[in-house]
């Protein structure tokens, strides 16, 4: 009899695992069934802001593979609209509710992949039935928001609550659609994934793009009329609006796993070893937004919910389930985003993280340009480096700038990943031509400045 693999959550982490396992083991050897409570599999939530803005035309452009492709090409039985409601580790079976047809199914497993993703944070005031209030976690959320934006009377004003990268990307999407946009953030700056000085640059640039940013403001409720949202109530007054988008962050979706006895670590994610096996639970693997992983710089367990990690972790789990050997090396928190033409990149530790992890460090911000100063289109770029003191090992980096800024973070991520010092970085052989960089690339200028700061 073939071994049975059940996957709970059929998106990035889950289906990367299923695909890799299938590559290594034929269907007579391994039967794979994947459950997802949603209507889509292998979809890109990351693309939602660009579909909302209209840059991407069709929702289905965001779906990489459908169940028919998985069935015909991968011999994976994907069952959408099936919510797994219980995992019984003793009986080795899952219980799934058929959300479309009704009823319940029980499926036996030998091996299980837990890849349930993350759950959006919804404070009490956000639990409203008011029309015009949207999350942006799933393609269904995107469908509902697009429908609202296109329906008459067309919304003219939008409030985005939460200034993380999803809130920032949604503010862009709504500005691009021609709405007047207010972004409300409880902290002193949006983009708390970078240090306050760099976040200040983001806020300033966003204001320049016409986004009304209100920081240090706490939302207390929503105002409605005839069932429609009309305003966001805050401790700084009410912001009238026709549509509210919630971007308040996420937390690992572990409830089902915890109920079954899967261990949860201090970051709130499921505890896994480097092969993505759930610690202490035979035959159960986990991947993606729901797991805890190692931060390679701080050495701390972290949960950083990003698609890039989910895909890699799922692949590692799948290779191992398929009989190979692979390990996930941990993360350094590299991420990029943009608001219109303003780009933001970050990797490693912020100053606050470095302090919390007990490092002594220097930090510098170097201002330069993305191209030679005389070359058309040259625009400013700020590169921040945080380097260990003494020694100069790179601990963290952040970039805020216009075109060609964000992906420069990858150079810094590679340097950081490999434990380079800022001194060694000054000699990096990076490409130069006037359309692409000044003769000293912004990364090199920042490294030189950090070397000087270490010498002071
Ligand atoms: C708007 C937006 C923009 C983003 N942009 C980026 C970006 O630019 N870069 C980046 O790296 N990441 C980005 N992300 C994050 C990225 O989408 C996630 O990190 C990634 O999707 C995580 O993959 P996952 O498989 O762990 O979880 P998910 O993709 O959330 O998949 C989990 C699946 O499990 C299903 N599920 C949950 N519970 C059950 C259950 N009990 N039974 C059955 N099914 C269940 C859910 O329906 C879901 O389909 C973005 C996310 C959003 C929302």
Task: Please tag this protein with its features.
456 residues; five-stranded parallel beta sheet; globular; 12 helices; FAD/NAD(P)-binding domain; single chain; alpha/beta
Summarize the structure.
The protein is of the alpha/beta class and 456 residues long.
Descriptive overview:
- This protein is α/β, with parallel strands linked by helices and 456 residues long.
- The chain starts with a strand and ends with a helix.
- Strand 21 (335-339) and strand 22 form a beta hairpin.
- The strands form 7 sheets. Strands 3-2-1-7-18 form a 5-stranded parallel sheet. The chain has a 5-stranded parallel sheet with strand order 9-16-10-11-12, covered by helices on one side.
- The protein folds into 3 domains: 3-38 and 64-119 and 251-322, FAD/NAD(P)-binding domain; 122-248, FAD/NAD(P)-binding domain; 335-455, FAD/NAD(P)-binding domain (3-Layer(bba) Sandwich).
- It has helices at residues 12-24, 48-53, 67-74, 139-150, 165-176, 196-208, 255-260, 307-321, 351-356, 409-417, 422-425, 442-455, and strands at 3-8, 30-35, 76-79, 82-88, 93-98, 104-108, 111-114, 118-120, 133-134, 157-161, 180-185, 212-215, 219-225, 228-234, 237-240, 243-246, 250-252, 284-286, 293-294, 301-302, 335-339, 342-348, 361-369, 380-388, 394-401.
- The protein is built from 12 helices and 25 strands.
- Bound molecules: flavin-adenine dinucleotide (FAD).
- Flavin-adenine dinucleotide binds next to helix 1, helix 2, strand 4 and helix 8.
- Residues 4-312 form the FAD/NAD(P)-binding domain.
- This is NADPH-dependent 2,4-dienoyl-CoA reductase/sulfur reductase-like enzyme.
- Its cofactor is FAD.
């Amino acid at each position: 009899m073939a071994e049975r693999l059940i996957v709970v959550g059929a998106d990035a982490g889950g289906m990367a695992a299923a695909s890799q396992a299938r590559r290594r083991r034929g269907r007579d050897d391994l039967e794979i069934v994947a459950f997802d409570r949603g209507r889509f599999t292998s979809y890109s939530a990351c693309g939602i802001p660009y579909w909302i803005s209209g840059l991407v035309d069709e929702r289905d452009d965001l779906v990489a593979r459908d169940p028919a492709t998985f069935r015909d090409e991968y011999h994976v039985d994907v069952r959408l609209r099936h919510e797994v409601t219980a995992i019984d580790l003793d009986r080795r079976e899952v219980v799934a509710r058929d959300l479309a047809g009704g009823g319940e199914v029980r499926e036996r497993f030998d091996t299980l992949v837990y890849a349930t993703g993350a759950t959006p944070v919804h404070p009490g005031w956000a639990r409203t039935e008011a029309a015009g209030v949207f999350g942006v976690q799933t393609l269904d959320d995107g469908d509902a928001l697009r429908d609202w934006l296109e329906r008459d009377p067309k919304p003219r004003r939008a409030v985005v609550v939460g200034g993380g990268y999803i809130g920032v990307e949604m503010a862009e999407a709504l500005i691009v659609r021609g709405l007047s946009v207010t972004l409300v953030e409880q902290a002193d700056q949006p983009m708390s994934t970078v240090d306050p000085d760099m976040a200040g640059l983001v806020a300033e640039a966003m204001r320049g793009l016409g986004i009304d940013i209100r920081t240090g403001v706490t939302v207390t409720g929503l105002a409605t009329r005839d069932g429609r949202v009309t305003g966001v109530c805050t401790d700084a007054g009410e912001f009238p609006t026709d549509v509210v988008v919630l971007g308040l962050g996420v937390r690992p979706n572990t409830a089902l796993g915890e109920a079954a006895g899967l261990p949860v670590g201090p970051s709130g994610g499921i505890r896994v070893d480097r092969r993505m096996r759930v610690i202490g639970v035979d035959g159960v693997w986990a991947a993606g937004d729901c797991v805890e992983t190692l931060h390679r710089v701080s050495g701390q367990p972290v949960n950083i919910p990003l698609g890039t990690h989910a895909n890699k972790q799922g692949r590692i789990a799948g290779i191992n389930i398929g009989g190979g050997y692979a390990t996930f090396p941990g993360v350094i928190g590299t991420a990029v985003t943009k608001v219109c033409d303003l780009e933001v990149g970050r990797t490693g530790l912020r100053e606050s993280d470095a302090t919390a992890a007990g490092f002594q460090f220097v930090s510098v911000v170097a201002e330069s340009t993305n191209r030679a100063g005389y070359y058309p289109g040259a625009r400013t770029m700020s590169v921040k480096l945080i380097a260990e003191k003494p020694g100069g090992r790179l601990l963290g980096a952040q970039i805020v700038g216009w075109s060609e800024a964000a992906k420069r973070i990858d150079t810094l991520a590679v340097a950081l990943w490999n434990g380079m010092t800022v001194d060694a970085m000054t000699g990096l052989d990076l490409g130069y031509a006037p359309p692409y960089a000044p003769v000293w690339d912004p990364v090199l200028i920042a490294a030189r400045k950090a070397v000087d700061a270490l010498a002071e």
